[in-house]
Specification:
single chain; 3-stranded antiparallel β-sheet; two-stranded antiparallel ribbon; 14 helices; globular
Length: 307
């Protein structure tokens, strides 16, 4: 933390660690499907062969690009330009239609962060166990748990870096050279670089990448219109919020449907309170919708995601 010596005002604030609560529901299931599908494509495509060639291989030294049985040369760069244009227009189209669906379900930062969070939960336990462990003094048990998590994170990140390089060097050949400790300097550099980037971004920085580094978070609101689907809190229905017993007459108690359980905040991967209105930190993952659906069902109220 840095402070102004004359005024004492804080210039930089260390962000507290966010412990997102695990949630189940239809949107959570969609995220799991997206994570498995996208990671599966990334890790499996280099190992598939079509016509005796790696299914996706960007052979830069030979200036040949093999994509699903087709061979592209540098003079075919126009096709890459068209693909980038289509991808850019698609991002604008899907954002205008469904908000930040890319951020919540398909962005590589989101996908790999979900994988790292899954590893963390398997090793350290749920949200409360993680907070309790972090607050405890370092001892043999805490060191063992933390070391196990870091080892698994590093191993997963290293495999990610290896797979990334496998898109530019035939992955079977790359694996053979790795087993014999004979990787070239550039291959070694990129395996380490991409592995370290994955480890740092998805393991440590997590939501900070979305909040502070991603430019899309800043200009995505310019692509919204009145018909865009967004995750939001229905203030007219939820307020005044407050705790109550099941079966309480809301009109007599002067309460809205929100029971102020704060679970929507606890499940948010960026740590925001969706009840404060539309915020650029919201990635549109709909975890708050899933958990609110469950609470409303328990209270006998209409689910918020229902029309």
């Amino acid at each position: 933390m840095t402070e102004n010596s004359s005024t004492g005002d804080t210039l930089y604030r260390k962000e507290p660690k966010i412990y997102p609560r695990q949630v189940t529901g239809r949107f959570a299931r969609l995220r799991v499907i997206a994570v498995w599908g996208l990671l599966g494509l990334f890790y499996l495509l280099p190992w598939l062969t079509i016509g005796g060639k790696q299914s996706v291989l960007f052979d830069l030294p030979a200036r040949k690009f093999y994509i699903f049985g087709l061979t592209f040369w540098p003079q075919d760069f126009i096709f890459l330009t068209l693909m980038l244009i289509i991808a850019g227009l698609s991002l604008f189209f899907f954002t205008a239609l469904a908000g930040r669906v890319w951020c919540g379900f398909a962005c590589p930062q989101t996908v790999w962060t979900e994988a790292f969070l899954w590893i963390e939960r398997k090793v350290e336990g749920d949200r409360m166990k993680q907070k309790k462990l972090d607050a405890a003094p370092m001892d043999a048990r805490k060191f063992r748990i933390k070391a196990t998590k870091q080892f698994l994170w590093l191993a997963f990140a290293a495999w990610t870096g290896f797979t990334f390089v496998g898109y530019f060097t035939p992955i079977v050949e790359l694996g053979q050279r790795l087993a014999m400790f004979s990787l070239g300097p550039w291959e070694t550099f990129w395996v380490i670089f991409y592995g370290f980037a994955t480890y740092g971004n998805a393991g440590w920085m997590r939501e900070q990448v979305c909040i502070y580094m991603c430019p899309y978070a800043r200009f995505q609101s310019a692509m919204f219109d009145k018909d865009t689907l967004i995750i939001s809190y229905d203030e007219g229905r939820g307020e005044p919020r407050g705790s109550r017993k099941r079966g309480t007459d809301l009109s007599q108690a002067g309460l809205g449907d929100c029971i102020d359980c704060t679970l929507c905040v606890q499940v948010c991967p960026t740590g925001i309170d969706i009840r404060a209105g539309l915020q650029y930190q919201c990635i549109g993952c709909a975890a708050c919708v899933d958990v609110c659906d469950q609470i409303m069902d328990k209270m006998g109220y209409r689910s918020p995601s229902c029309p």
